[in-house]
Each structure stands twice: as structure tokens, then as C-alpha cells.
Amino acid sequence: MRTLIACFTFMLLALSAFPVSAYNGPGSGVSFLAALWSVLAGFFVVLSAILFWPVRAFLRRRRERRDAARSQTAG
């Protein structure tokens, strides 16, 4: 019963709203897309950095071992 009253109240408020006489130009949509693009790009940069971190550590460790082996044989 409570949901029915809430639903009825919402419908009454939604239907009684006055139309807005404002114009949203194309600039607002472009601004929204630019903001969305930057958030998505930042998310994927962070995700790739997190996923690539173990690979970088493995490559660094392998290079250090190789350099250490070369310095022992050369010395």
C-alpha cells in the first residue's frame, strides 16, 4: 500500500511539472562527452598501469639477474 501511495505521489508530481523554456545548446553535450571521455581514459590508464606493474617488475628482475651474471663472468 505504501508503494502504491509513493508511486501515485510521484506520478502526480511528474505530471504537474511545468515545461521549461530553456535551450541547451550543443556545447553542453560536447562538454559532457569531453568530461566522460577524460574519466574513461583516466580509468583505463590506471587499470593498465595496475595490470602492467607485475610485468615491469618481472622484466626488471630478469635484467638485474642477467647484468649480475655478466658482471661476475667479466670480472
Helix content: over 70%
Mean pLDDT: 89
Strand content: under 5%
Largest sheet: none
Shape: elongated
Question: What's the tally of helices?
Answer: 2
Q: Measure the end-to-end span.
A: 87 Å
Helix-strand topology string: HH
Query: Could you list the spans in which at least 5 consecutive residues all have pLDDT below 50?
Result: none
User: Gyration radius, to the nearest Å?
Assistant: 29 Å
By DSSP, the count of extended strands is 0
Summing up helix and strand content along with how strands pair, one would put the structural category as: mainly alpha
Question: Any overview of this molecule?
Answer:
By secondary structure, the protein is mainly alpha-helical. The chain has a domain at 45-75. The protein has two helices and no strands. The protein has helices at residues 2-15, 26-74. The longest helix is centred in the middle third of the chain and has 49 residues, at 26-74. The model has no long low-confidence stretch (mean pLDDT 89).
